[in-house]
Amino acid sequence: MSKKRKANEMLDIKFIRENPDLIKKTIEQKRLDLDLDKLLELDVERRKIIQELESLRATKNLVSEEIPKLSEKEKKVKILEMQEVDKRTDELKNRLKDVEAAYDVLMLLVPNIPSEDSPIGPDSSANKEVYRWGEPKKFDFEIKDHIALGKELDLIDTESGVKVSGFRGYFLKNEAVLLHLAVIWHAVNKMREKEFSMILPPTLVREFALVGSGHFPLGRDEIYQIGNPGKLASGEYIKDPMFLTGTSESSLLAMYADKILDEKDLPIKICGFSQCYRSEIGSYGKDTHGLYRIHEFMKVEQVVLCRGDVEESDQWLEDMRKIAQEILEELELPYRVLSICTGDMGVGKRKMYDIETWMPSRGDYGETHSDSNLTDWQARRLNIKYKTKDGEKRFVHTLNNTVIASPRILIAILENYQQEDGSVLVPEVLRPYLGGLKVIKR
Prior knowledge:
By secondary structure, the protein is an alpha+beta fold. The protein folds into two domains: 3-107, Serine-tRNA synthetase, tRNA binding domain (Helix Hairpins); 124-440, BirA Bifunctional Protein, domain 2 (2-Layer Sandwich). The protein is built from 13 helices and 18 strands. The protein has helices at 3-9, 13-18, 20-29, 36-66, 72-107, 146-152, 158-165, 175-193, 207-213, 249-254, 310-330, 377-382, 408-416; strands at residues 128-133, 156-157, 171-172, 197-199, 204-206, 224-225, 242-244, 260-262, 268-277, 296-306, 335-339, 351-359, 364-373, 385-387, 393-395, 397-406, 424-425, 439-440. The protein is elongated and about 105 Å long. The termini are far apart. The relative contact order is 0.15.
């Protein structure tokens, strides 16, 4: 089987049956808790039950045709036999319901096969730097972090933020608000320049959208659930759970759920701008100072749906990354690109890059962008297909990448552009958005 065929069919149960060793190897590489043997056992049982149900259905149909031709005595015998068939059918249907429920849970955990050039390793320590741009500025004065700068210039208020919003709460004020909106608007203009369709998506979504994007079931703890989802027009309370998205990726993909697209309309290039919410439970105790890891922020996200061809989707992965790099270079912020290893990339990803931007107070780079190719992993969950020119229906490949996320990017801007007198220069590319303002000072 060719590499391309594997990439296109990796989540099909037939492929899983035929390649158990490859899947087990991937489960180990991605550090997942998935009993593949149990999944395959359930698959065998599921198929046996379905086969028997089809046989019983065929038997019943045949007998239904025969009964009118039988004597009364023979009819009674056949009717009793059919009652046993009905009883067995009910038993099998109940068992199938349980088996399929367990099967579906495990299928949601089956990982995407990583690309051949993805680093192999258990965690972020195995990520590989593949590109670097810009040199971190050497300051000849004692630098301040973004929180100190924010307090002195009346830009950031974390004390009030914690009082009002709780742990990791914050207020942006004055020129910080303008910087925040400027960098967002610059990113939006960049995506329009790249001919992406602009979308303002909902941030309140149903469960299927998060299952489809792969944020459920494993990332469920990171997502906020709404305690009061509201009422229908009839006055009846909404029973379906509702959630706040951690990225517009989920909403953008769910737009196309259960659709069959036309190959000539691909690729679909969409860009979402939205508020994002993350509980950050998995990061307990990490980055508790400042604006690096917070519960709500704004993000411009790019999503591509392309043909089910791994060479094409991998090229889009590179192209999307370059867009984010362009923005950082226009902001004149030093950054590096990491190729993410198997143990750090997540269950659904074939290949992934992180872009980390230099943050002086950390004395290191901090993640600001994440670029991923998930091939058909999300498309299968959301049932997003396209029809080829030959009439064949195939699953699309999906990709996503951060265009910009704020206020995290403000950490890099404030700290890299700080001056000895405590002021902060405004990056030249953002000045038109701030009415020509060049410097933020007391």
